[in-house]
Amino acid sequence: MAQFINPFSDWGFKHIFGREISKDLLICFLNDLFAGEFVIKSLAFGNKEQIGLSKDSREVIFDIYCTTDEGKEIIVEMQNRGQEHFIDRALYYTSRVIVNQGIKGEWDYDIRPVYTICFMNFVDPLLPLGKFRTDMVLADRDTGKTVSDKIRMIYLMLPLFEKTEAECETDFERWIFVLKNMNTFERMPFLAKNAVFKKLAEISDLRTLSKKDMDKYEDSIRIMRDAYATYKYAIRTGLEDGRKQGLEEGMAQGMAQGIEKGMAQGIEKGKAEAEHQKNIEFAKLMLSDGDSTEKIQKYTGLTIEEIDAIAQSLH
């Protein structure tokens, strides 16, 4: 049975990073993320409503907005599943923060840096293939020289971080390893490496939650799983409809178009296989939370034999 909070839930993410009592955890993470560039000594949580962060799809998009002691404005997001135009969305909200710095009347456009950090529990095909961290700035296309440091977007695609506990060499890598796997731990790793992981263990220990907080956490987990089940059903339905339509059109329009549709179906088959792998990863999370085989089968569509095999691989 897992001992720690699932950080991919709305309540869990904010419980770890979005409270005054745990603010030093966010400071520590950000300093490790920007290691060697600058040091954040303190920060203040801001009102994200002022920058127009959307309330849509709250079951899958979790965000924290804060300002550092140096005036840098930072948005930290957790995105649990792929979203159309996600890269553009991040650019839009980062730009909104910059625009809201404007002062009516005379102003010399001396804007404060705005950084958006996106934890992505999926792989976005628009980002560099096979790269866990993508750090985007305004730079010259030919030389790569940074033109302005006032806007920056950092995408962390968690599925592409594959280091084991023993392979993590920096505190930033240790952070990512812990956040990616925390809800499967029976003990918190790296306690001897950095005291921050001891505090993280204390704050995220499920056994220390009050009944009220546990109810909120379990509701957050339910919302996350319901959203995933809905998403999975939509994909399955779309694939079935697309395959049926492709076959019908291929037969009607002749061999040439049939071949083209067949190639499209091959691509769809690849997507289906990727979806199956995602269901396996989701089953691992549910198993680590102690969920029953029947419940896991309901949410993932996997067979009992597949779930049993996954459970054995975790031991």
Describe this structure in words.
- The protein is α/β, with parallel strands linked by helices and 315 residues long.
- It folds into two domains: 10-208, no CATH class; 212-313, no CATH class.
- 47% of the residues lie in helices and 14% in strands.
- The chain contains nine helices and six strands.
- It has helices spanning 10-17, 23-33, 86-99, 171-181, 195-204, 211-253, 255-288, 293-300, 304-313, and strands at 43-45, 61-68, 73-79, 114-120, 133-139, 146-157.
- Strands 1-2-3-4-6-5 form a six-stranded mixed β-sheet, with helices on both faces.
- A hairpin with a 6-residue loop joins strand 5 (133-139) and strand 6.
- Helix 6 (211-253) runs antiparallel to helix 7 (255-288) and helix 7 (255-288) packs antiparallel against helix 8 (293-300).
- The chain is globular.
- The N and C termini lie close together (12 Å).
- The model has no long low-confidence stretch (mean pLDDT 84).
